[in-house]
Amino acid sequence: MVNQSRLNPRHQDILKATIKHYIATAEPVASKTLAQKYDFNVSSATIRNVMGSLESAGLLYQPHPSAGRVPSDSGYRTYVDHLLVPNDNIDQGVQKIVQQELQIARNFETLLQRAAKILATLSGYIALVTFPQKLNSTLSHLQLVGVAAHQVMLIVVTDSYQTQSILMESPLAKEEVDESTISHKLQLLSNFLDSQLKGCCLSDLTTIKWTNLDNEFAQYSDFLQLLLEQLKLTLQSTSSSPMVIHGVAEFLRQPEFSQLQQVQTLLSLLEEQQEQLSPIIFTNGHPHALSLRGRERVTFPELESLQRVSIKIGRENSLEPMQTCTLVSANYYQDQVPVGSVGILGPKRMLYENAIALVKNTADYLSNPFQAFAVTP
C-alpha cells in the first residue's frame, strides 16, 4: 500500500496524469487511456498496478467495478498541495486581463460587480465577491469569565450592541491555587483586557502587540496574544457583508451538475442563506491555504505575508451543499486589514491553476489602494 504523503515519482506522474485527464474529460480514466495519451514508457499493466496502489492509498476510486478511476478528495488535495506546478504564463496572462477589465470601473460597487462577472466568465464557475466589512465598530465592553476548571470565556460587546463570545483554555489551568485566587486573577486579566481594548475597532487590533507587559501580566503573554488573534478572527467572520454572485448558469453546464435536483440545496444556499456562506469564503487562515505566488502589485510589503489563497475541496467545506464542490478564495485588504473576499465555487474537477490565478490576481487588484477606489466600509 502506498503512503499518500510519500509517493514515488512514477506514482506522482500517474496520479497527476489521471487527475488532469479527468479534469479535461469528466470521464473515469482507464490505464489503457493513460498508456496511449501519455509518454510513460511502461505497459498498460504497470499503469494499472500503480492506479490500484493509488486507489488503496485513498487517492483514486472506481465509481463502478468495470469503470476506470476518478480522483478522490484526498487525491485532489495531494495534487493541489504537492503536484501542481505554478505557471507564470497563466498568472501573468490573468493578471493582465484582470487589470484591463477592472480599471474601467467608475466606483467601488461597479468594480466588485465587474470582478464577479469576469471571474465567472473566465472560469466557467460561480464567482462570489463580498462587499467590504464594516471596520469601524468599536469594542465597548470585554469580560473574562471562568466557565470550567480548564476553560474561560471572553464576552465582547460592540458599540452596536452585538455580543460575541470566545471559549479558550484557561491560562490559570496549571496553577495550583484555590478558587478565590483564580477568580481574583481572572478579574485582573478581565480588567486589563477591558482597559486595553475598549474603544478599539477591528483595524486597531492588527497593530496591538503584547510585548511590553508588566510583570503582573508577562506570564500570560502567550494567552493574551492567542486571545487577540481569536478576537480578530471572530470579529472578521461575524461581520456579514452583502455578496455579489455571478455564473450560476455557467456552473450548471458542468457535467457533475446536469441534474437540477443535485444542486437545489446549493442554489438555496446561494440565494437564501448567504449569511452562512460569507464566513466560509472569508478565508481566516484556513489550514489548506497556499501562499500567493508570482508577482505582487500591491504597494505595502506586509500584505505579501498576510494574503493567502484558500482551497477547500469536497468535505473540507463545512456546509453540506458545498461538499460536491471546491471553493478557491482569497481575502482582499484595506489598510492591511482583511475586509472582504473573492471566491470561485466549482466542481472538484476544476482547472486549479486557472482558478488560483484568477482569485489571486482579483484579490490583489481589490487590495491595491491606488488601483481600487477609496472606500470606507
Key terms:
single chain, alpha+beta, globular, 11 strands, 377 residues, three-stranded antiparallel β-sheet, 45% helix, Beta-Lactamase, Arc Repressor Mutant, subunit A, 15 helices, Enolase-like, domain 1
What is the gist of this entry?
This protein is α+β, with helices and mostly antiparallel strands. The chain is built from 15 helices and eleven strands.
Describe the model.
The chain has a 6-stranded antiparallel β-sheet with strand order 7-3-11-10-9-8, with helices on both faces. It has a 3-stranded antiparallel β-sheet with strand order 4-5-6. It has 15 helices and 11 strands. The chain is an alpha+beta fold and 377 residues long. The protein folds into 3 domains: 9-83, Arc Repressor Mutant, subunit A (Orthogonal Bundle), CATH 1.10.10; 88-133 and 240-367, Beta-Lactamase (2-Layer Sandwich), CATH 3.30.450; 139-237, Enolase-like, domain 1, CATH 3.30.390. The radius of gyration is 24 Å and the shape is globular.
Strand and helix map with partners:
Blueprint: H1 9-25, H2 31-37, H3 44-56, E1 60-61, E2 70-71, H4 73-83, H5 88-102, H6 108-123, E3 126-130, E4 139-148, E5 151-158, E6 163-169, H7 179-197, H8 202-205, H9 215-218, H10 221-237, E7 243-246, H11 248-252, H12 260-272, H13 274-281, E8 289-291, H14 302-306, E9 308-313, E10 325-334, E11 337-347, H15 352-367
Antiparallel strand pairs: 1-2, 3-7, 3-11, 4-5, 5-6, 8-9, 9-10, 10-11
Helix pairs in contact: 1-3, 1-4, 2-3, 5-15, 6-15, 12-13
Quaternary structure state of the chains depicted: single chain
For the CA atoms, what is the radius of gyration? 24 Å
One letter per element, helices H and strands E, the order comes to HHHEEHHHEEEEHHHHEHHHEHEEEH
Unreliable spans are 291-307
DSSP strand (E) fraction?
A: 15-25%
Cα distance spanning the termini: 53 Å
CATH class of the largest domain: Alpha Beta
Question: Could you say which overall geometry the principal axes of the C-alpha atoms support?
Answer: globular
How does the helix and strand content classify structurally? alpha+beta
Summed over residues and divided by their number, the pLDDT gives a mean of 82
